[in-house]
Amino acid sequence: MLTSTGLGVAALGLLGAGQTVGWIEPLARIVPRDRAVGPQGLPVNRTAAQAGVTTAAIDPAWRLLVRTPTASTSFSRESLLAMPQSRSALPIACVEGWSADGVWDGVALRDLLVAAGASPGSRLRLTSLERDGAYTVTEMPGEYAADPLTLVALALGGRPLHVEHGYPARVIAPGRPGVLQTKWLSSVEVL
Q1: What are the backbone angles phi and psi of residue 127, rounded to the nearest 5°?
Q2: pLDDT tier for residue 33 given thresholds of 50, 70 and 90
Q3: Average pLDDT over residues 63-77
Q4: Alpha-carbon gap, residue 95 to 145, rounded angstroms
């Protein structure tokens, strides 16, 4: 009985581990998401249409508003692209149990804060273009904002972000669950 139980647990482990262990990926039959399904090679839990942001996200008039206690600064996508760009290889680690790696390009969040006149280690409130949803507004502790790997991402895999991955801009930070990697970024507020 113990042998059967052990073999069953090992088989289930192999069937699920293929989600994150590349060489056994062909065995991954009970995982919640197929990493290859989705634009730019990453899965998507909530689409732009489901979030009701498609029109606002592709609007050329979009601006990222950065509010500090003393001022507000807005950045167009073009002005963000004109700033020094950084690259971070970071996963989206979903609370549903899947994880997928991506190579993200964009402005280091700490550099954006400095450009707006704020401390790079500030505690932040991030707001999405999405109006309804549990993660429309999230907070980010200062240690994430100061981390050089934390980006206002503008590209994924060397191509502009797809709207399903947060175009025109999203946050990507090491060690934060996927639901806290705010897509369709609208504003960054220094708290």
Answers
A1: -120, 135
A2: very low
A3: 96
A4: 22
